[in-house]
Amino acid sequence: MIVLQELLLSNNKEYCMQEMLYRGKTVIFQNNCLTFKNEISFDTYFNMFSSCKWNTYTKISTVSFKISLQGRGKIEVVAGNQDNIKECIIKEIKYNSDKIITIDVLENCPIMHLKDYCYIKILSDGYTSIFNGKYYSNDDIISETKKYALGICTFKRETDVERNIKILIQEILDNKESPLYNLIDVYISDNGNTLPLKKWNQYPFIHIFYNKNYGGSAGFTRTMIESEIYKNDTFYNYIILMDDDILLLPSVFIRLHYFVRVLKDEFKNSIIGGANLNLQKKNIQSETCGFYNAKNGRNIITKQNGLDLCNKENIIFNEKYVNTNFCGWWFSCIPEQVITEQNLPLPLFLHRDDQEYGARTEKKVIGLNGICIWHPKTSGKHPDYIWYYEARNMLIASMSLCPEEMTSKQLKKEMLRMAISSCLAYRYGKAEMILRGYEEFLDGVDNFKKINPEKNHINLIMLSKRDSFLIDKESLLKVKKKSTETKVHILIRIARYFFPSFRDCYVEDECSPSAYVGKRKVFVVNSETKSTYLLEKDWRKTLGIVKKMFVIMRKIDRDYIYIKKEWIEAVKEFKTIDFWKKYLEI
Question: How many whole angstroms separate alpha carbon 419 and alpha carbon 414?
Answer without folding.
Answer: 8
